[in-house]
Design a protein that fits this description.
Helices cover 66% and strands 0% of the residues. It has helices at residues 6-24, 33-53, 60-68, 71-76, 79-84, 95-119, 122-127, 135-161, 165-169, 172-195, 199-204, 207-241, 248-262, 267-279, 289-292, 300-306, 309-317, 326-332, 353-368, 379-389, 396-409.
Amino acid sequence: MEAVPARARGYVAAVALLALLCLLSLPTVRTPWWALGLLSALYTACEHVVRRRFGGTFYPVLLAGAFLLPPPAAALVPLPAALLSPVERAGHRPAPLRRVWRAAQPALAVWGAARVHWALGGRDAVVASDFPYALLPAGAAVLAFCLILAALDGGIRAVALGIPLRRAWRGLLSRSLAPVAVHGLAGLMMAVLWRSPYGPVAALLVLLPMYVSWWIFAQYHRERAAHQATIRALVQAVDIKDGYTRGHSERVGQASVMIARELGMDDDRVEVLRFAGILHDVGKLGVPTRLLRKDGPLTPEERRIIELHPEYGHEMVRGISFLGEARAAILHHHERLDGSGYPYGLVGTQIPECARIVAVADAFDAMTSTRSYRRGRPVEAAVAELERCAGTQFDPRMVGALTRALGRYGWHPTVTADETPYEAQGPQPVTGAPR
């Protein structure tokens, strides 16, 4: 318990006390205890399967309980799962405290959802299978469920980590609303079938397509995690070989995302541009380390070798299908609008759009990063230099997008440490721009 701040323990205790008061409030109608027992057992089984295989939380049964049972009884549904399922220790956080939290938080959320649902006449709509009217109280109940979960999650983050409440709550509701709404619809279908002549057995059939959707969702996230691991391994390998790129790749990815979003690209393309920015220098793995770390000026032959890194990088990632157009950005991010770039001397729109974005992001980070031999330029000076070279070296549209994004959001790179100075050797149109 010593590793958990006292204020966090107090917060969990307060939430648990509030949940207990909700459980003890008198129901206004008779509670069908057999239904409570069946829903509790079903939720415990679902939680065990979902957490073990997918690492998530399964809400349809909880929300079905909110639609079927009085609020105090509905709040009892998640308790057996919290008390019986194993709780792994996370660092020094004690398992009993986590178990109390896992019991109290959903109990409060389900109680609130049931209160809203019953107050809006949802119980009668479910019994009568009155559609579409039944959707209104069910939707309000789902919203209350999400609001309570988000409020409690944000609160524990704020007290445990000492961050401002507004920051702790940011994004919690928006990220959870859509998936919980799907679970709420499944819970409503369960409740209606439960009250129908077909009974609870028919209600259980709703869980089969939900389980299939969870499996598909889990497969997607496993594939996405594999993608991230692949990229992380490549970037770490480059970081080890060339100290300059330590942090540079992530920052170029960050700037590329800012440009892509400012241009109104969809989320899938934004993600691809992030990959392109992160991996744009992966070809340095094929360049001799002695050249990457050379302190003195590069000879023309050595420069030609270093200028092969876009082609090396493209060859390395050619078989990674999920990178899509990011592969073209890796190959062409050193091309220049006037045709003086490399490796192929492409001109204007012959250069792929993604490569033109990464080129601007790459040069911007090169100018604003502090290195061992010089301090980074202010953002305003770097932007002015990009604008000076727009139309000859850089696409003016991409420069304008970055300028607008920086004016709106500022520049807050997550990593700033760079060390190796080789990138600035030799004459360059933009001072400090990467080779």
